[in-house]
């Protein structure tokens, strides 16, 4: 079965990353901070799913 939570996190991260690249946003902006938070959530979810 598809992991919808994981797909939603990855989708949001891709959208934000594209926006940051397009606009040339620097580190410390809310979008970049959200990407860092999403990275932590993705890592935690993957370790929980694996173990």
Structural notes for this entry:
The protein is an all-alpha fold and 51 residues long. The protein contains two helices and no strands. It is elongated. The two termini are 17 Å apart.
Radius of gyration computed on alpha carbons: 12 Å
Query: What helical percentage do the residues reach?
Result: over 70%
First and last CA, distance: 17 Å
Mean pLDDT across every amino acid position: 93
Low-confidence stretches: none
Q: How many strands in all?
A: 0
Shape: elongated
Subunit arrangement of the protein: single chain
Structural class call reads: mainly alpha
Question: Mind summarizing the main beta sheet?
Answer: none
% residues in beta strands:
under 5%
Task: Write the element-wise H/E pattern from the N-terminal end onward.
Answer: HH
**What is the count of DSSP helices, taking H or I runs of 4+ residues?**
2
Q: Can you summarize this structure?
A:
This protein is mostly helical. It has helices spanning 4-23, 30-50. The protein has two helices and no strands.
Descriptors for this entry?
mainly alpha
How are the secondary structure elements laid out?
Elements: H1 4-23, H2 30-50
Helix pairs in contact: 1-2
């Amino acid at each position: 079965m598809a992991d919808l939570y994981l797909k939603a996190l990855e989708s949001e991260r891709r959208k934000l990353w594209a926006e940051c690249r397009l606009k040339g946003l620097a580190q410390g902006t809310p979008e970049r901070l959200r990407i860092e938070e999403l990275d932590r959530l993705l890592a935690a979810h993957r370790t929980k799913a694996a173990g």
